[in-house]
Design a protein that fits this description.
855 residues; PH-domain like; two-stranded antiparallel ribbon; 38 helices; 11 strands; 8% strand; disordered N terminus; EVH1_PP4R3; ARM-type_fold
Length: 855
Amino acid sequence: MFLEMLPGACSEPPLALSLAREETPLNELETHEYATQAIQSKKPRRVKVYHLQGDDWLDHGTGYCMGEVDKGTLKPCFIVRSEIDLEEVLLQSFLEGNIQFQRQQETLIVWTDPAGKDLALSFQETAGCADLCDFIVRVQQESLSPQISLYYVLTAKTDASGTEGPREITELVTGPVNYPPQEPSRTSLQETLDLLTQGCNSLFARYKMLEFLVDTHYCDRLFTLFQNLEDSRDLEALHTLNDIVKVILYYNEPKIVEELVSSEWRVTALAGILEYDRSFPELKACHREYLNDESRLKTVIDIPLPAAQDAQMDIFRKDFVLQYLKNVVLPRSLDELALGLLASMVHANHIEIIEFLLNPHANGDFLQRLFHLYDDGDAPESKKRDAVKLLHQYVLVAKNNLSNQLADFLSALVKGGLLKMVTYALDNKDSALRVAGIEILATVIDQDVALVNLVSNENKEVDELEDVESMGADLKKADYADDEHTHEKLEQIKLNLMNDMSLPLLLGKLLLSDPDPALKIQAYEAIKNLLCSTVFDCDLSNRSENGVTDGDDAHRAYVKKYFEAFYEQVAPTLFRTFIDLASGTEEVKNAAEQWLQKDPVLFQHLCDLISFCCHEHEASICRPFFTKSRALDGIVTILALRVNVTLKLGVLRCFKGLILLDDYAFCCHMVEHDLFAPYFAYFTTVAARNSLPNSLCLDLLEIIVRRSSTENFACLAMHISQNYRLFLETKISYVSTGKNLIMAAKQFRDRVKDSTVTSVDANDDYLNDPHPSSPIMRDGNGYHSSETVNGTLKLENGFNGSRIGEENAKKKRGSYGENSSDKRLCLTDREKILTYQDMNAVEEEKNSHNMAIQP
């Protein structure tokens, strides 16, 4: 019975009770000693009393209501005393029998007493109504009147469509709950199902039902009944039992699910019940067969189980069972909340597993024994493969779910010898194993590349060299002689580690030869991360304003040696195709071209990798390899080959990146070997098209024009202007880029002729450039020439390997003083340049209309 509004029989609406008089303290009532102090309501609450007569609610006065226990009968009751005369009792109603109280609209309590009279209390304050409702709850739950109940009637809002009006929702707050029979039987299964289903309808009933299920271990009783029903092949009862178990899982109680997967007997019984699905009456699943298949859960290394076998299931078996229930058995039957509980339990179990693996005392040095498989030549290959799969599984678990534990877990793995396992996996013929290996390595690199590069803040080494940590600690305790000896030993170990390129070599092999495109990309990203200078504590390119390198010199030496080892041992293999295109025989060049045509994506990655290396590493480290090996020549040569256009776009991006380095020696190499010849040959084929290749080619020239105020770019502009002037004037006349480039070259020539202007004066930032250089002027290894060969600048000692670079730049910076007069170029050098420029200016005028583009 719902009370929505009180009719006009009363002088004022009970839901809007507004009495001007303030609440007065009722000392007489407060001083009464009741039989049960803990049960009575807190204090008198101002209220109006209503009786229902016919269809009207009649006002029976205003007073103060208390919930208390009657002294004479020891029965709980509502008692309302008049606010005018406290001796006058307006209402005394006992809470007895099976009365159903309803709380409506926050301030109303409505009920029907045992005599059949409909009563209502309208409270002035919400707190007063809540206080009396709490009294009802205490009376029921303390068993003073266990059969009474309290419902909360809520009014739901109109739905968005407006097709349905407001509707009422009834929620049980307290009351008697009907429980299933203590001992389930074949005849009581349907009753049990109905009662469990009803228990889901309210939070209170749900709580009480869960309390019953947990306290009585009711699922164990159902499992015992299941064995009898299966023996008798009672399909209807088995289907009902299946429904009961699903309803129990719908309760979403962790304690129940934990109990269900706590032992093999319970897991087997649960899986057996779930095999009998009413939705497929003619079919029976085979969950028990799958869970009991020992081949599904292999033991790679014997370890002490973290739980007693007779009491609980170990955490690894539990993980297998939970994953199977979550992913196979229950997704179709349960809602997202119930599946979310399983997911959270899987997560919690994973935390236990990772913590167990990190505890060598608990797991019997599991990791050490696991990685020892790869040192033991007699270890079965099957165990080695299973070990990779095992660790791959838990590395992904830690990566996806346990970010807080990931760093410690990966650090422990690397220190234990993870790289030996990864090396084995990457070199294996099994594609799945290679994928697992590269994913493990990628996870380690993503977390901290220093773990792989074996460099850390505390000079701690990893992998098999675990004793280095204690060695570093002993340095502080030893005397001077021992300290020096130990330090030398530690230094030698680090140098050996920096020269170890086995992992980059394996990654390079994967990148070049593996047929799996996804694996190629992962290998490429892993190589990039291994070559990233930012993984080290000391940034090699970080210089202070006075030109002094920050950080520890010894540490920098380790880092430099690591990168030099890469260019000596890995790069020649990785970039062999580019080298062959530039300096190989005709047969070798043809083979290289066929490979380019077959796998253009691979060589796009390699072009990007070259650009990355040149920008990431010091020029003195990377430049000697790319210039001496002529790998750069081979890259640009691709533009003249019949290969995929996307590969040519990658080459253009790489070429542009090298030019943007603004490096003197690279510019010398480009000019000396005329690397622009293939570029303009390709540009000729796309100059008349409105396409992306055309835009990239134009963009490269625009970059040179925009930066022609610096010497390196100005000299490139001069080289292009002298050798490809006809192209600039005719082939790209639809834009101003060609004319602007010719003008930039002329302005630079004029600037060099002017004895009062230098490139240093034109750009004072030149002094802050770590590589202030130009192929036109160089003090020790510079460009001094007055000749041209086939229209191309001839360099005299223009590039001589590692002799040009940071050392030469430092000499050049040291030769400049603060005064402007000290910034002038050497007069002898200027005369040589002017001689060269004047000769070529005359030559340009003669041949401006006859100059052809070089092939």
